[in-house]
Specification:
By secondary structure, the chain is low in regular secondary structure. It has one domain: Herpes Virus-1, CATH 3.30.40. The chain is built from 2 helices and 3 strands. A 3-stranded antiparallel beta sheet has the order 2-1-3.
Length: 75
C-alpha cells in the first residue's frame, strides 16, 4: 500500500492524500508537480526513475488506511 507521503522531498510543500500535484517514482519518492516539471525534469534525483502522478486514496478509506505523517522534505 502506498504511504502517501505528506510533502515534497525537494521543497517541502504540503501534499495531502488527495493532492493531484503529488508525483512519485517506483520507490515512492515524493515530489510536487512544480519541482518535477521544473528543476527535476521528470526524473527522480534519488533513483533516476521517472516520476508519475500519485494515485489518490478514496476518502472513505483514509480513516482506515491513513496517509503517512513522516515528512521527508527540507526542514
Amino acid at each position: 500500500m502506498l504511504e502517501l507521503r505528506p510533502d515534497c522531498e525537494r521543497c517541502g510543500v504540503d501534499l495531502p492524500p488527495d493532492s493531484a500535484e503529488a508525483r512519485i517514482c517506483s520507490f515512492e519518492c515524493t515530489f510536487c508537480a512544480a519541482c518535477v516539471d521544473g528543476p527535476l525534469g521528470g526524473v527522480c534525483p534519488k533513483c533516476g526513475g521517472d516520476l508519475q502522478q500519485r494515485p489518490t486514496r478514496a476518502a472513505h478509506l483514509i480513516e482506515r488506511f491513513p496517509a503517512s505523517q513522516d515528512r521527508k522534505g527540507p526542514r
